[in-house]
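In keeping with the milestone schedule agreed at the kick-off meeting, the structural modelling team has produced records for the first pair of proteins. Each record is given below as a sequence line and a structure-token line. The laboratory manager (R.T.) confirmed that both were archived under the project's standard naming scheme.
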Amino acid sequence: TLRPDHPVRRLTVPHSFRTNSINHKAAYSLVGDGELVHRATALTSAGLKAAFDLRRSMEGDLWSTPDDRMTAQNVDANDLVGYMPLLEDGKDFFGIVRKYVRASLSSVYDYEANACGSDAELVAFFEAMQAKQDASSNFPAVLTCKALEDVLSIFIYQSTGGHLHHGSLAAEIVDPCHAPWAVVKGKRTDDGKSCGAPRTFF
């Protein structure tokens, strides 16, 4: 853990405040057996587990930039319009985030001399992050200022842009028929006709 006044911690805290606590609670209230995601989809408990296992097996792209992800997924930029808002807007947003991160790091560390790699506290933090990665992870192997810039930019992009474009509270009201809910077991809250459950729920 970086000390509270460490420049990298000060840079990341506004984008990560209480994230662990929120995600921990969401693990129980959203994706637990019989909870909201289970009832809002057609997946069984085994199906939900299989979906999460599949995503974990794909974590080799977790630390990829939007451009790298698009290339790996063979996504045509013309296909983005109207269908993939996170990537469509995300490329520009990521560019802004990267400039912000680079400016912040450059005000503290000498990029040319790779002063990031000379900060013992930062090296320990980086190595602790490496230790938490899955075997297939593409997390950088060596701490350089450029590698740190990439990691912090991707982290901020994913934790802000990701929730802005998918996973936002009440996003389902745009298309309330997308996933009719059965919050009470065996009883669809939209009576099977109006498809208004998500809108009514929120």
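The second protein of the pair:
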Amino acid sequence: MADAKKPKLGDDDTTLFDQLFLELVDELSRDGLANSQTTDAFQWMKKCDAISNINSFEYQQQSLEYNVPGGKRNRGLSVIATARLLVAPRELSDEDVKRALMLGWCVEFLQAFFLVADDIMDDSVTRRGQPCWFRKPEIGTIAINDSFMIESCFYKLLKNNFRDQPYYADLLDIFHDTTFDTEIGQTLDLITAPSYVDFSRFSIE
């Protein structure tokens, strides 16, 4: 017998989740593109892979699209699945569903921020079946700042869409604590690489 307590997705949750992503990208870039002083930076963030073609620059691949989606989405979809587990269907409004989906994408943005930076530190070659972002010739070390931009994006989404909610400060705490704990873990990972290990600290005992 299936566990009745196991989080389950609604029939349309995965589709709604995927559809929401481009809406969030538009939201993130809207203000920046309207400001002449920041237009270039937001164009870079939104459509980073510029190529010259027929006397103009066509933006072929968006940086956010390249780095944020593409994974299994387990982390992001677990948010709406958990909301459906904890809240009775009759009490879960359409707005609640959208907020849960949006919060799920914030988790995916957080993960993407970690992955872009991790690939640089590990000198990785591929991620999710494609070249790591920093490996693209036109990107290089700019990927470091791109990872910071991805991190800033989910805080902007939280501010825009959750600031009026009583749990807003709790959300910020969770994201800050998760970031800190992950970075501590990353430090341990890096300093235990073969070139950094001090074997004199270890013994048979």
